[in-house]
Amino acid sequence: MTDKFQIVSAGSALPSDARPVTPRNLPNKGGSPSETVAAMSSRFPGVVLHSEVIWGDTNIYIASSRVVEVMQWLHDDPTQQYNYLSDITAVESRDFEQPIEVVWHLRSLPFRRFLRVKTQLEKSAALEVSSVWGIWKAADWMERECYDMFGIRFNGHPDLRRILMWEQYKEGYPLRKDFPLRGRFSRSEQLRQALAQNPEAKYSMEELSIADAFEDLPEDMRGRLGAGERTGE
Amino acid sequence: MSGNRTIEVELSTTGLDAQGRPQRVPLVTNDGGAPVNVSAPQSMEPELSGDHMLINIGPQHPATHGVLRLVLELDGETVVRCIPHVGYLHCGFEKIGEYRQYNQIIPWTDREDYLNSIGNNVAFALGAERLFGIEITERCTVLRVIAAELSRIISHLVWLGTTCIDIGAFTPFLWAFQERENVYNLLESWVGARLTTSATRVGGMAADIPTGWMDGLRQFIRTFPHVIEEIDRMLTKNGIWVGRTIGLGVMTPEEAINWGLSGPMLRASGVDYDVRKDFPYLGYEDYDFDVPVGTNGDVYDRYLVRMEELRQSVRILEQAAKKLPEGPVNIDDPRIILPPKSKATSEMESMIHHFKQVMEGPRPPIGEAYVAVESPKGEKGYYMVSDGTAKPVRWRIRPPSFINLAAIPKMVEGHLLSDVIAINASIDIVMGEIDR
User: Fold this and answer.
1) Cβ contact (<8 Å) for A94 and B393?
2) In this complex, is the C-beta atom of A7 within 8 Å of any C-beta atom belonging to chain B?
3) Which residues on chain A are in Cβ contact (under 8 Å) with B372?
4) What is the DSSP string of B370-390?
5) What pLDDT, in 10s, does the model give residues A105-136?
6) Is A16 part of the contact surface with chain B (CB cutoff 8 Å)?
7) What is the DSSP string of A72-138?
8) What number is the ipTM of this complex?
9) pLDDT bracket for residue A3 (50, 70, 90)
10) What is the pTM of this model?
11) Does B131 contact A55 at a Cβ distance shorter than 8 Å?
């Protein structure tokens, strides 16, 4: 194990005298875009819909159908090497007509670069985009959270379940703009639902399959679970 | 995993060998005190291999550091599968932020990673200032560096203390929490609060440091290294500590990068990525400090990295205390900074500024900004999107311990049940930040 261990250095592809600088006095719009934009445009013609520089960071808008292909290239290409996935999130505008944006924040540790990749999902169609879990394992919980909060389905994610809300949560997706701050249901309805929960059913069926735990449950509970009563967190 | 590494144990019991593993000593002696070999018991235990067991840890359990719940599948004492459940502390911070002005969000940042509250205040203010296009004053920059490093010391001390308790050592916990009190006393005399500091404002700080505060800081810088050395002497070569931490939860550098780990978790695996060095903010490139990097990526290396970070934080504090310039803390812009109360009640113009700011709030231009800082847990980022109104369209927290915790199934599988506690402790999770 020790012999194949090497220190991975951030900024290793830069010249040795390159010194990072605290960004100062950045313009709101404009500035020199990242080198990645030109490279991506020539590699994937038609996929880069638009790019802009805001407060010094480059935004690239790509077609939602080609996400995995582009991300795989960003991760693997020796001139790009975006090997670190900082964040996946989504943004819904206050203007209902605007599409929902899915945002990936990428870092290239060897080149010390930062890139924001976006894709737009029209609300009229199904909110679906491909998962990048196969490229960065870090996407696992980020995509689950994005699904939980916005209802965006990440196709190809191995275990796309709600993560912060419980699995039987029925009020919708909390960070959507049409979701009221106080919740969709009244306080009395929320209380009624909370009291109606079955506190015994705290394991999912998958967990109950471990160690034949299902077989050890009391007869009446097995009956209720068998009759389709939902279980989970 | 890392069996080829030897720690020269200084503090140990007679029952442990040089690697900290228990020595098998016969328990039965004859009349002269010489050990007697006892033959193994003849009765056979029932054949239980392949019979798995379901174990639930948490959400109310002292070793899960909050309301984390782990569902474990065990084969004997070995973990076969780990299913984490989070969300018991979900408060919807990001949703609430969309209904608040920028300065009103700062108290919420205290409450997510509550061990690093002043560091979160600094991070949020930096993000909002990028969005507003503000350049803060020199004095404010240095004060924020002091705040961020004090906050790192608090967080690492709490990590150290609680991890010691988890693994079975009680004394270093008391030493660590004593020092943490000293930092909290400093913070209290600066901003008036200990835990929920709300110390920054967009464009400056809530308050300048009081007279004589720097003497208190210098006193702390002088005494704190002795405590680190004491804890170091107690733990680093302690047979039990080494035996309970070495070779657990190993992540290789490639895995650590791919799983998005950050902070001490990533650096213990041998990746020298530190936001302060690689994407600096607050002028960190002008400070002379080292980034500790581990080699094996196990729990013991994470401990070593955090201990060294404590020493490096003291170095940064020393330099910051030397270079703290005189001058104003807040920028000179009445559209962003509130006027002093005395002026707001006596001058017409200041009163108008005060009214406009409190009722409407400062408005950033349309745009978006992702600003990441090196929090004690890792890369903490605030992503803010503005549509030109006084409230953000989207306020996203990039929670480092959430993403570090996502790797726990990979780290614990194959280890013993008692090691799950040590590995979980080494991630340094704060559920307030994970569930938000």
Assistant:
1) yes
2) yes
3) 86
4) EEEEEETTEEEEEEEEE-SSS
5) 999 988 888 999 999 999 888 899 999 999 99
6) no
7) HHHHH-TTT---EEEEEEEE--SSTTSPEEEEEEEEETTTTEEEEEEEEE-TTS--EEE--TTT-TT
8) 0.85
9) very low
10) 0.87
11) yes
